[in-house]
Amino acid sequence: MDLKVCSLNVRSLGDWLKRRQMFNWLRKKNFSIYMLQEVHCSENAISVWSAEWGHKTLFNCCSRVRGLATLFNNNFNLQLQRSYSDPNGRFMICDIIADNKSVTMAVFYAPNDADNLSFFLNFFDHLNDLKCD
Asked: How far apart are CA 53 and CA 71, in angstroms?
């Protein structure tokens, strides 16, 4: 299995032109999975943005700030097993089966206060809940 993963802070995808340009740029990179932070989405935008991407997506949009997206490419065999999204829009974890291998993927956008122990404890508690084989 040759999964290529990209993590990127996009600093908002709310503008249609910026989102189109970003999605086109990401497609050209030909990664398997794109884990995006600070997408600034709303629940109403998820179906539109997913259709614009054209492949499987996961979004965590708690407000027009923060927000996460995991965009999957169609260049590998993928089965989404389960996922968890933090209600504050700070992290998202999913278990996938990719080319017959179990993988846990996580994307997070940590608070600016690096000493925020409760954020990391919460993240790792949920990460342990979704641990693959």
From this structure: 8
- Is the per-residue pLDDT at 60 higher than 70? yes
* Strands ordered across the beta sheet of 68-72: 5-9, 33-37, 68-72, 57-60
Could you tell me the fold of the domain covering 5-129?
Deoxyribonuclease I; Chain A (3.60.10)
Let me know: does 94 contact 80? Beta carbons within 8 Å. yes
Indicate whether this model's pTM tops 0.90: yes
Is residue 36 classed exposed, middle or buried when 0-12, 13-18 and 19+ CB atoms within 10 A define those classes?
buried
Rg (CA), the chain: 14
